[in-house]
Specification:
The chain is mainly α and 185 residues long. The chain has a domain of 54 residues: Roll (Membrane-bound Lytic Murein Transglycosylase D, Chain A), CATH 3.10.350.10. It has a two-stranded antiparallel sheet with strand order 1-2. Helix 2 crosses helix 3. The radius of gyration is 68 Å and the shape is rod-shaped.
Length: 185
């Protein structure tokens, strides 16, 4: 059998209308609530996206900062190494300069020593050349005999006498052992 719905009266219709209205209001409220929740979720998601972007940017900045600091440290190390190399090169150049100066002073000193030695040798040679030869008188010697043997001519005996006047008063009287000065030949 077919179910027949009883007809509603005004009151039933009003009740139905109120129920529909309440259901629509509840549906609208539910939709508004769902929309509000969705909006809040979207806003929260947007905030999370912005925070993530900010974190990424901060991480990127930190990474760039770290890279920059690493590059800076590397540049400072290169600069320090270059400065150390410059100082070492300057020290080596200064050392070479001082070695050259010392070598030149040593050569000048040696030259001075050689000149002084040559001068001393020349002075000694001059003194030796200026120093008269000496002869020790032997038994049987006379000034003419000494002149003939030592100077090559007996006629040079007056030279011997003149050089030795401080020791010889008489050219005919000389003593054995007497040291006589002789002129250079």
């Amino acid at each position: 059998m077919a179910d027949k719905k009883p007809k509603k009266g005004i009151l039933g219709k009003a009740l139905d209308a109120l129920t529909d209205r309440d259901e629509k209001a509840a549906a609208a409220a539910s939709a508004a609530e769902a929309e509000a929740k969705a909006k809040a979720a979207r806003e929260q998601a947007q905030r999370q996206i912005e925070e993530s972007r900010a974190a990424i940017a901060a991480n990127q900045a930190a990474k760039e900062k770290a890279e920059t600091e690493a590059k800076l440290k590397e540049a400072e190390e290169k600069l320090a190494k270059a400065e150390a190399e410059r100082k070492a090169a300057a020290f080596a150049a200064d050392l070479r300069k001082k070695e050259e100066e010392a070598r030149q002073r040593m050569e000048a000193f040696k030259a001075q020593q050689a000149a002084e030695a040559a001068e001393a040798a020349a002075a000694a040679a001059a003194a030796e050349a200026a120093k008269p030869r000496m002869y020790v008188v032997k038994g049987g010697d006379s000034l003419s005999k000494i002149a003939k043997e030592q100077l090559g001519s007996a006629a040079r005996w007056p030279e011997i006498f003149e050089m030795n006047k401080d020791q010889i008063a008489n050219p005919n009287l000389i003593r054995v052992g007497q040291e006589l000065k002789l002129p250079k030949e």
